[in-house]
Write a structure and sequence with these properties.
Length: about 230
């Protein structure tokens, strides 16, 4: 069957409200279509696809020399002591930092990212940094707060300046999918799973990644950061 017929069948049988599909090769769009009630501009929570946006934002700071992937985080946040202070951004972003289970769903939405990160830092550890892989988003809250510390800016502003604006992602922002709130109300962005976006915006991000960090002739991330 054709892609269109298959997707229509999928939307009907699951059933889901709608779906979108975007396929590109060598920077050119091969196929793009939507089904059900969705259009390319339909905003929806993108769950763990948020992690890539967060890592990319952090990597712009690495590119600029504001952060280093392998420096213990205690260098940026002296309050992070002991085993937690030995965590590095590389391990935090690759789920090998030794942080424990998620506490994010229970956090007050009125928290700041700093308060969220402090809660993450205080969690029982599941191992030494670099010891084992444990998928989750807790350490990303800490990484995001460290980004706020070195820039003196809120996470939303860092993302807007370094990723969203260069790519023209006008309908993408951080919140928390399980507790919806307006874009303007967000104080505690959930960096591993809280992004809202649409097919049009996220396709721009993926095209930048596929083009080794460039978009419309402008560099957003270095080739080293992409690698």
């Amino acid at each position: 069957p054709s892609i269109d017929a298959y997707m229509k069948k999928l939307v009907d049988e699951l059933p889901i409200e709608g779906a979108g599909l975007f396929v590109a090769r060598a920077g050119g769009v091969v196929y793009e279509n939507t089904w059900g009630i969705y259009i390319a501009d339909t905003v929806m929570p993108i769950a763990s696809a948020s992690k890539w946006l967060t890592a990319a934002t952090i990597m712009t700071l690495v590119d600029d020399g504001l952060l280093d992937l392998d420096t213990p985080i205690s260098n940026y946040w002296p309050e992070a002591t002991g085993a937690a202070g030995n965590m590095t951004l590389r391990r935090m972003l690759s789920h090998t930092a030794g942080t424990g289970g998620s506490h994010l769903a229970d956090q007050l939405r009125t928290f700041t990212l700093e308060e969220s990160a402090r809660g993450a830092l205080a969690l029982h550890r599941v191992g030494q940094s670099g010891e084992k892989f444990q998928y989750g988003g807790v350490s990303m809250q800490i990484a995001g707060y460290i980004a706020e510390r070195v820039t003196g800016k809120a996470w939303a502003d860092i993302f807007e300046e370094r990723i969203a604006t260069p790519l023209g992602m006008t309908n993408t922002w951080y919140g928390f999918a399980r507790k919806p709130e307006s874009r303007e109300q967000v104080t505690n962005p959930i960096l591993a799973a809280g992004v809202y976006s649409n097919l049009s915006d996220y396709a721009k991000f993926l095209l930048m990644m596929a083009a080794d960090g460039t978009f419309n002739g402008k560099r957003v991330l270095s080739k080293t950061a992409i690698d």
